[in-house]
TrEMBL record:
Metal-binding found in the keyword field: no
Signal peptide: none
Listed PANTHER family: PEPTIDYL-TRNA HYDROLASE 2 (PTHR12649), PEPTIDYL-TRNA HYDROLASE 2, MITOCHONDRIAL (PTHR12649:SF11)
TM spans (from-to): 6-25
Gene3D superfamilies from the UniProt entry: Bit1
Annotated protein name in UniProt: peptidyl-tRNA hydrolase
GO cellular component, one term: cytosol
UniProt-recorded Gene Ontology molecular function terms: peptidyl-tRNA hydrolase activity
Catalytic activity: an N-acyl-L-alpha-aminoacyl-tRNA + H2O = an N-acyl-L-amino acid + a tRNA + H(+)
């Protein structure tokens, strides 16, 4: 289609704006600042990945005899709650955890409610984000039952101090 006065207006406007924007970026160094900022953020992420491993752990009460689907749903509730708490408490740990592929581990708690609460207390004392999930009671367990404990995201070495003796689910 040949360039006419009718469709040349938007084209010329785009060219002029592009030239002005390009000159402004070069003249005032905005491009270097933006590139430097991006480079700094990328390096920070690389360092967090090279640094200590991070993870998010779910501790499931085995005495409640929940089905696999119920456990999965409760772990999902814990994941979201811990993630939101982690963003407030330890945003750098959350960033490192995300950069490392968001590892998640599900563990068994054979000691019932007392053990679950003790694990939560220990994790909290170490400064880790925690959340005990209370079931709504619509399906398999009584309303208000404490079903799953989420710990993290946080440094694996700290979480292991709390959960290293527990077995995989």
């Amino acid at each position: 289609m040949p360039l006419t006065l009718v469709n040349a207006g938007p084209f010329l406007t785009g060219v002029v704006l592009g030239v002005v924007l390009g000159y402004s970026v070069k003249r005032w160094g905005l491009g270097r600042h933006l590139a430097s900022s991006i480079s700094h953020n990328m390096e920070e992420m690389r360092q967090s990945v090279r640094g200590e491993q991070h993870k998010l752990v779910f501790v499931v009460r085995m005495d409640l005899k929940m089905g696999k689907g119920k456990v999965a749903a409760q772990c999902c509730h814990a994941a979201l709650s811990c993630y939101k708490k982690g963003l407030k408490m330890a945003p750098k740990s959350v960033s490192a955890w995300e950069a490392q592929g968001q590892p998640k581990i599900v563990l068994k708690c054979d000691g019932g409610l007392n053990e679950l609460e003790q694990l939560e207390k220990t994790a909290r004392a170490l400064g880790l984000p925690t959340k005990i999930i209370h079931d709504a009671g619509r399906t398999q367990v009584k309303s208000g039952s404490e079903t799953v404990l989420g710990i993290g995201p946080g440094p694996a070495s700290l979480i292991d101090k709390v959960t290293d003796y527990l077995k995989l689910f």
